[in-house]
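Worked example 2:
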Amino acid sequence: MYWAFTKVSIITEIYCKLITVNLKKKDMKKLILLVTLLSVSLSNAQAFKGSGDNKFQVGASFQNNATGVNVSYDFGLGENISVGVSSSYALDLSNNMPADFIDRFDVKARFNANLGNVVNIDENFDVYPGLDLSTKNFGGHLGMRYFFSEGFGLYTELNVPFAKYKTGVLSPAEKLFNQFTVNFGASFNL
């Protein structure tokens, strides 16, 4: 019980210091959300269990000129290694951008280094940098998961392409999932 009061007092102290600093309103909201998500650890859950662990995630995908849906599955191969598949589809395109199904859709095979037990922030928290090979590029991602219970948590992922298959000037439709993207949603233990 002592650890819960200690965390609350630390979070309160951080929050009070942030209020005194002149931050932009948008930045403050993001920071408060992050601190809140990282501080809620009243349940006995574990973000990544190692070999045999199964994670299913579903959420929103945000990028320049489009928003969409993202679905992913990861399977633990070892204490800190998992592989998986991720797929995204752009639903809402800005400026009536003409885009075919092949432009709107992306699927990736991915490799993750699950470092939650290495950074040791909280047993419910996992950070997982990784590499992915998609239908559009070779890229990388940095993801974070936080589990509120044994079966439910939230995740966010930042994705960036390292090498695009199509070089040269890309049309706006060709840039879909071939640029920096952010995914945010729910994570489930299977």
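DSSP finds four helices and eight strands in the chain. The helical segments are 2-20, 25-39, 101-104, 116-119.
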